[in-house]
Write a structure and sequence with these properties.
Helix content is about 30%, strand content about 30%. The chain is an alpha/beta fold. The protein has two domains: about 140 residues, Rossmann fold (3-Layer(aba) Sandwich), CATH 3.40.50; about 170 residues, Dihydrodipicolinate Reductase, domain 2.
């Protein structure tokens, strides 16, 4: 079978990585790239840098990656859907959830694969975590808490930290827990003089009853990417920056040494750091996109799921503005394809 002809629009910070990996993915040939701003990272290779999505489509594509600023996602996606091109759009799917749902419908009604780059689903630590939760290793899950902190990335100018980063945490939480969000409340802060928020704290409840907490900001000099899952048998901690997963079992051995118990509690359980293969998440995601186009079922975020994620973020921002808990609607066509 001939390689899938791939096109990439957007050669910025994310696009450069897509270009690098697409050239290495078996069964895929990168045949065209586009960016009206040129090729700042010099990743086009021998390909002409086309000015826009229309020229990209004219190259004759089977699949496409959209890695341009958020405000342009929907227009590019609609054009690719009209052209019959299977497409992966970088997160968030669009400027707002309503537009995201229309994008999902455009691909669904045409029988095309429409996916969104919620790449944390392919983080090896989170994949291991999801499998172990599904197997019951934590027992009944009570809470999923995430922390995603770093300094402000100068490349982001059209959205705040909620749509740029909280979308990661909301999607990964729903995916790991295998449950959608039911309600959220939030607080935001504006500390850097920008129009958009640079800090958000979200508390929510999933439809299966799990409590979710997310602390996200662009105001920290250190980078932190942590997911903590607390259950009846213990606590999993996934460090998604390193791909590590550790399990702290509930205490089974009583501590009789008073000074130690002051620091560790009244009992102590086993601590296990798991060893497993670690593939670059973006490479795994693009391989899954290829497989999905070829008919396989994968863990890609569908466009319908991504629209739900964006609605959760919008509800969180509304809660911060209005001071009340917001309830999230069920997505239509949750399977997305």
């Amino acid at each position: 079978m001939a390689d899938l002809r791939a096109g990439l629009i957007g050669l910025g910070m994310m696009g450069r990585h897509h270009a690098r990996i697409l050239r290495d993915v078996e069964g895929v040939e990168l045949v065209a790239v586009a960016d009206p701003g040129g090729d700042p990272h010099r990743v086009a290779g021998g390909l002409d840098v086309l000015p826009g999505v229309a020229e990209l489509i004219a190259s004759g594509l089977d699949i496409a990656i959209v890695a341009i600023p958020t405000r342009f996602h929907a227009d590019a996606a609609f054009a690719l859907a009209d052209a019959g091109v299977h497409t992966l759009v970088e997160k968030p799917i669009a400027d707002d959830a309503a537009t995201g749902r229309r994008v999902a419908e455009a691909f669904g009604t045409r029988g095309l694969v429409g996916a969104v780059g919620h790449v944390e689903r392919f983080n090896p630590a989170l994949q291991q975590l999801r499998a172990r939760l599904e197997a019951g290793d934590a027992g009944d899950v009570y809470q999923i808490a995430t922390r995603r902190q770093s300094s402000f990335p100068g490349r982001i100018g059209d959205v705040g930290v909620a749509k740029d980063l909280a979308t990661h945490d909301i999607d990964l939480t729903a995916w790991v827990a295998q449950s959608l969000y039911n309600s959220v409340s939030a607080q935001t802060a504006h500390k850097s003089g920008r129009d958009h928020e640079d800090m958000i704290a979200i508390t929510g409840r999933l439809q299966n009853g799990i409590i979710a907490n997310h602390l996200i900001n662009w105001l920290s000099p250190m980078k932190e990417r942590v997911t903590v899952v607390t259950g009846e048998r213990g606590t999993f901690i996934a460090d998604t920056a390193t791909g590590d997963l550790t399990f702290y079992a509930n205490g089974t051995v009583s501590l009789e040494w008073e000074s130690v118990s002051t620091f560790r509690g009244v009992s102590e359980g086993d601590v296990t750091r798991f060893a497993f293969a670690k593939k670059e998440p973006l490479r795994a995601e693009l391989e899954a996109f290829r497989d999905s186009v070829l008919g396989a079922r994968t863990e890609l975020s569908t466009m319908a799921e991504a629209a739900h994620t964006l609605e959760v973020v919008e509800c969180a921002l509304a809660s911060a503005r209005e001071g009340v808990t917001q309830f999230v609607s069920d997505p239509v066509g949750a399977d997305g394809r």
